[in-house]
Each structure stands twice: as structure tokens, then as C-alpha cells.
Amino acid sequence: MPQLRWLGHAATELDLSGKKIIIDPFIKENPMCPIKLSYFNDFDLIIVTHDHYDHLGDTVEIMTMNKNIMLYATYDLEVYLNKEFKIPMERMIPANIGGSVDFNGIKLALTQAIHSSEHSDPTGTVVSADNVTIYHAGDTGLFEGMKLIGEVFQPDYALLPIGGRFTMDPKQASFAVDMIKPKKGVIPIHYNTWDLIKVDPNEFSRLVSSKGYKPIVLQPGESIEL
């Protein structure tokens, strides 16, 4: 059964088609994360939405520890990791915002995100397998292109940042839900890690429910079957 597990902040674990995926592996310095890096010894794929330290996180250390894991990110970010940390390009899936690529039967895509990033454009990501599609928005503000993301990918689940200040706040994220129209549920992320992004997820739940969508508020380490 496909599963999703939230590890605090934006870090999200997916188990799809027998493959283990970690999105934005901010682990060691993440005060919300309940696991250690050794947990990723047998993972198959890392997806990084952008290079801020709380999203690129422990990617380099995980790839050094786990010699089989691959990386999916924008090509410019991959080139930076190759030059700066000697991560072989052969262990990276070259991509940019655009069409989907296949990873062992799992369909991957990068999407626009409205944010900042030093070595490449910020992105969201869409992951599809086992008849389920998950949209992880990364760090982003509200933008009209979310409607197109919803129409093109038709996600079953959406993970949206709600912490405000650096990303959408609960009210703005509820407008994003209206544009994306996730069929089975929406999960708030990127909030309450620090005081600067402290919000009440119940406000998000109330707003989302009032629009007819299903909010799924997870505790760090909690998982759901997809």
C-alpha cells in the first residue's frame, strides 16, 4: 500500500511502487524530525525542491552514506552539487520545470514555485505511481499557475506550506487549494518549525473544510496510506 509520512517542516517520505523517496531531507537540524540520517540507508531517491538549507538539508551526507540513492532536482542545482561536493552526475536525474520523467515506473515532474534560490529556480514536485498523484509545492507564495498545475496533474494529495512570512499563510494556502483541487486531501507543511513561521494549522483546516476539501494535519513522524 502506498504511504506518505511527514517528517516535520517540508521533509516528506513516500513509499511508492516498492521505492522509498524522501523530499527535502532536512533532518539533523530539524527540531521537529523524529528520525536520524541512518534511516535513509536503503532509500532509492531524494527530491530537492530548492537549495535553501532547510530543504537541501542533508542531501549530500545521505548520498555519501547511501551509494545507491539517486537525486532528482533542477539541472543547475545538480551541477552545483557535482562541482562543490563531487556528487557524480551519474547519480542524478537531469531535469527542469517541464515534462515528466520516469524513475523505475514512478513518474516525476518539477513545477513552478514563487520563492528564491541561489543555484537554481525554486520548484515544487509531482510524484505519481500506484494510481496516486502527490503534489509537494516546496516553498512558494500564492500564484495563479497553481490552477494550471491542478488541471495538468490532477493531484490526489497536495502538500502546501502554510507558515507565512517566507511562504503562503493559512488563508493564502486555502486559496491555493481552490486552484489545485486535490481529490483526496491536502496536508499543511512548513510551519511551526520556528517561531518565525508559527501558525495554527486548525485555521487552515477550517478554511479548507469550508471550501469542501479534506484537510489532513499530521504530526511529525505520522504517516497515512494513500
From TrEMBL:
Keyword Hydrolase: yes
SMART domains for the chain: Lactamase_B
Domain Metallo-beta-lactamase as annotated: residue spans: 8-190
Leader sequence segment: none
GO molecular function: hydrolase activity
Top-rank taxon: Archaea
InterPro entries in UniProt: Metallo-B-lactamas, RibonucZ/Hydroxyglut_hydro, UPF0173, UPF0173_UPF0282_UlaG_hydrolase
Keywords: Hydrolase
PANTHER family recorded: UPF0173 METAL-DEPENDENT HYDROLASE MJ1163, UPF0173 METAL-DEPENDENT HYDROLASE MJ1163-RELATED
Xref: NCBIfam families: PRK00685.1
Family in the record: Belongs to the UPF0173 family.
Annotated protein name in UniProt: UPF0173 metal-dependent hydrolase B6F84_06615
Organism, scientific name: Acidianus manzaensis
Lineage of the species this protein comes from: Archaea, Thermoproteota, Thermoprotei, Sulfolobales, Sulfolobaceae
